[in-house]
Predict the structure.
Amino acid sequence: MWNPSRYHIILAGIGGDAHSVGLILLRQALQLTGYQVHYLGTQNRIEDVLEVAPGADAVLLSCMDGHAGHYLKPLVQHRLNDEEETGPLWYLGGNPSVLPLARARRVFAEMGFKRVYLGFVDLTAFLEGLAEDLHNRVPSGGPAARIMPERNAAFLAIADWLLHDVDHDLQRREVLLGWPTGAAANDFNDNASFLKTCPSLALAQSHAARKGRPLVQPRAGVALADDQQRLFHRLRCGGADVLSYQIDSLTRNNRYSEAEEGIAESRQCGQSTLNGFPLVNHGVDALRRIARSVPRPLQCRHSTRDPRLLAELCYAGGVTAFEGGAICYNLPYFKDYPLAEAIQNWRYVDRLTGRYLDRYGIVIDREFFGVLTATLMPPSIAITVCILEAALAVRQGVGSVSLGYAEQGNRVQDIAAIRAIPGLTRNFFRAVDLPSVQISTVFHQYMSAFPEDEGASMQLIHASAETAALSGATRVLTKTAVEAVRIPTVEDNVAGLQTVHRGIALAGEGHFEDASVRIEQRLIVEEVSAMLDAVLVLGSGDVAVGLERAFANGNLDIPFSPSVHNAGQVVTGRDITGAVRFLSCGNLPLSREAKQFHEECMAERRRRDSVPIAESYRIVEDDVLALPRGRVPRWPLSERTITGFDPDMGLTTAVFS
């Protein structure tokens, strides 16, 4: 009789990318089916997987950044096909290649993979295929034990103090030696002279806020500098108000030598083999040439582990905005990156930003990636993280901060979230004795799985732009209609930009004021305030100390994070109106009334869908894959919400508006 419990499965993410939602859901599904699952987490080297593969029945690999061909090079010599009878079966999924689908499938099949999944796959269908493949195989007995890194409860001495310029200069000498291009960024005066000639994002956002119309910004990154310049020109002509260098995965992991190889390969084959722009390798001269040719504010978007050299080169090359922080560019992206180390690296970036303001009056905007893991993210967690990172930045002299938020799909909740950000941020800054600075909001169009149908995607993008404008966001980060099927071309990006502009124009003719927005905003304010208060208590008023301790004890907890420094107890899903709620609050310091509200919302969802509490992962899977499976007829999911929360009275009878 078929017995899955006799089979051992290795499940691992490879490469620098840390998208973990799919892995977490697959792990739960495999375990509930009965398999023995050996979970290695994300960001593994293929050599590490090969070391523990003997004894396993199947090895399931995921890669989401398009560079699997690079990470899997050791498999070419390993000859997986020769082991199919005696060794494990190998599977590959996610978004493993930037190559055309047919070519990518052929490349990975030649490596010896039993099945290759290029894009989203239904969990049930995958489990059926796995069972079919294993059904007549003799179980192997299990691989060697592999232990994930343990959480370290020890705290480094990392307090929220101003980094002295003498100490910053000492670090700077070492940072600029990190790659040969660093030397060209050494002269502060020369950098400032050039920066003053470049369009300022902070100034553009100030003008946009006064006009009440958000700036529109696409994401764009290719391997070669000349191609990046042409790409920027096309996007500017297509309607982009702000342009961004989207950094490649190798640079994000500070693997500059390998990025150099990617540049050479791109030149040789005539197309980009990197999934972004290797800015550090190209250096200051190339950046300044690009900046001179494009009369738009330039921003750098990246998720780099150590961002210090990248920031230096950006500012020297005319970039007037830099995204990221010690939490948002850490816990959603890296398996084992201690918060204290991240805080130290980002303190350097923030003080560098502050020094340009102190010495030259140049305001460089610092943005915080409230998208986090991009999946079912409660507004209160996203906003809390952004406010804490913004506070750390302002302590170092930063004069302009942008707080990001990713659209979740319930229009009431999304509008309430954006509108809550400025007031919550100003109040917290006052509470920790920080000066008044420019505060902007950034609306990210839906960041999770997109529909495969381009018409449905375009409708989503248009409606999303309406929501962004109705919320009063300062800036909107755009998407394209082909997110689910391929790497977007410049034409795809331009089409997305134009659709966003039409949505914003349509929203300008109306106004979204509803009692449900105010009630939803009250819930967000109450939850954010509770988490911020907990951080200050844990740190005795010190933000850096408090946030490190809050993540250690689960008072702060990012859903679906791959990091061993995140508690991982919080689970989220959608209520029956599509608003994101807590399936499990973990150890978040929410009030009894707030917890009760979320509990009742999700209980109603379970009743509607007949989902037992023990199988809550089914709710998460349905929510994550509803769009790519074509189950969402129109966007937004809803323009109404459950309005039964009152922080003074608790949960009242759930009503809809």
User: Anything to note?
Assistant: The longest strand covers residues 36-44. The CA atoms of residues 176 and 182 lie 4 Å apart. Confidence is low (pLDDT under 50) at residues 649-657. The chain has 23 helices and 17 strands.
